[in-house]
Amino acid sequence: MRTQTTLSFLLLALHLLLSTVSEADLLPDPFQSSDRGLWKRPEFETDYKGGWEMVSENSGVSAMHLVIFNNNKAIMFDATVFGPSQIKLPAEVGCRNDPTMKGTNKEDCWAHAVEFDIDTAEIRPLKVLTDTWCSSGAVSANGTLVQTGGWNDGGKGVRYLTPCPTCDWLEYTTALSAQRWYATQQILPDGSFIVIGGRRQFSYEYVPKPGQSNPTSFRLPFLRQTTDEVENNLYPFVHLSTDGNLFVFANNRSILLDPRTNSVVKEFPVLPGGSRNYPASGMSVLLPIKLNRGRRRSASKLIPAQVLICGGASSISAKFAANGTYLPAVSNCGRLTITDPNSNWIMEQMPFPRVMGDMLNLPTGDILMLNGASRGTSGWNFAREPALTPVLYNPRKPRKQRFTVLAPTTIPRMYHSTAAVLPDGKILVAGSNTNTAYNFTGVRYPTELRVEKFWPPYLDHFLDQHRPQIVPGLFTGLVSEVRYGQDFQVQFGLPELGLVDGGDVMVTMYAPPFTTHGYSMNQRLLVLRTMDFSLIAPMMYQITVVAPPTGVVAPPGYYLVYVVHRGVPSKGIWVRIQQQ
């Protein structure tokens, strides 16, 4: 009853407002072009450099791998080979058999994976059967984690974990044709998956259907060409380009691989400055994919795509670290338009060097860099000088103004750390274990089970008056599923007094990644095309946007949708792009 009364009042107020103000005065043209970035007017400014919040003292397992599900649960896991964790499997679940254990008792009753509630920090132990050490993964079109490879008995395995209150791992131990340890997994436009590389695996293969096994792999000589004495081409960076090709980066070189023909169609210039892949462990993201405002893009017109790669280490850094010498990490970045056949790397300088860091697309289109170290490389105690200070990169600003140094944490997040963007715009930060087992005393960097959340600058409370609030259910609300190319409406409130220009608002769509070893696989942010913008009640607005055109631009699955008002994002709402 109260909701109906409030709605009637809002509609009455709107009627009175419209009776005195013309439509032309009320709704300025939302599609005016601007050369100042994604918004018509400048972003709101803040001096806030972010903040840190401790949300859990004990996650049970150290988060070597991390993924966010559409039920707002985080899945954290490391490896079965590290011995006891800090949480046991429930009695009703039972212990796992571990053939690697010494003695006659082969039972391992410790959990090596947990489900972590991102709102309450409650944890539920999960029973993974085979070794997930340094594995890969991606979330399928129906929201299931499809997880590949690992060490020893897990190297050829494919595991499935579906989001539900009682779900646990389902495993097929002989699905892959090769041991995929330190490999990369990428979702394809049809929702299937490719797995590329791994230690001494100069090949790739496609994830088979559950219960089936691959008889063989596809050779990729590029991976053999990019290896060196310390194998600085592991966990290759793989990004699905908007032309359907796969950008594959290993060590300091990159190609376009066409998965439709299994052929290399392009090799890019060498990225100078050092090695970028494990163990040199730089960072890489696909920069926001911008879909045009106010008109429908021709299906034949290619949407530009850019890749950013930052940090890393010298090609010999791991060799030196093994002998107790920790070389400075790489402090530069390279930016490349992968849809331009004549593109070359544009180099930029970070405020300070970083190796083993994490790089995330934020809802605003900015890039966050955090975690890692300033010297050394990935490996067991192979790094020094924790990089405690996050850095924000704004790709829309002039080159020398793009980096902003943010507020530091007090917890070193070294080897085997992870981070993830949450629906409310905060960043979940977990993990760090440079030891060969769980070790909390007598070591330089103890195993880390504490979980933090980082508040980026856009969460400054002084910006709350400008923060959109998506209102699902009101005035038909936000749909939970969309089809490719479909128009859909997002309605939101804005506490700010005064009229909002449609050019000041954008809708972004974020694909949460699978993160491990400093690389967030399958991460993707799209800026949706705006078709209409209107005031529907006092301080209530509706924006009509167009879903991505094809699976090449946005593979099917669950995305977080945000409304961003001059650099201030709403909380995200889960939306699923239906599989064709």
From TrEMBL:
Q: Which UniProt keywords apply?
A: Signal
Q: List, alphabetically, the InterPro entries matched.
A: Gal_Oxase/kelch_b-propeller, Gal_Oxidase_central_sf, Glyoxal_oxidase_N, GO-like_E_set, Ig-like_fold, Ig_E-set
Query: Which parts of the chain span the membrane according to its record?
Result: none
Q: Which Gene3D superfamilies match?
A: Galactose oxidase/kelch, beta-propeller (2.130.10.80), Immunoglobulins (2.60.40.10)
- In this chain the Glyoxal oxidase N-terminal domain maps to 64-458
- Signal peptide start and end residues: 1-24
Q: Start and end of every Galactose oxidase-like Early set domain? A: 477-577
- Coiled-coil stretches are none
What is any Pfam family matched here? Glyoxal_oxid_N
> Which PANTHER family does this chain map to?
ALDEHYDE OXIDASE GLOX1, SECRETED PROTEIN-RELATED
- Name-wise, this protein is Galactose oxidase
Upper lineage: Eukaryota, Viridiplantae, Streptophyta, Embryophyta, Tracheophyta
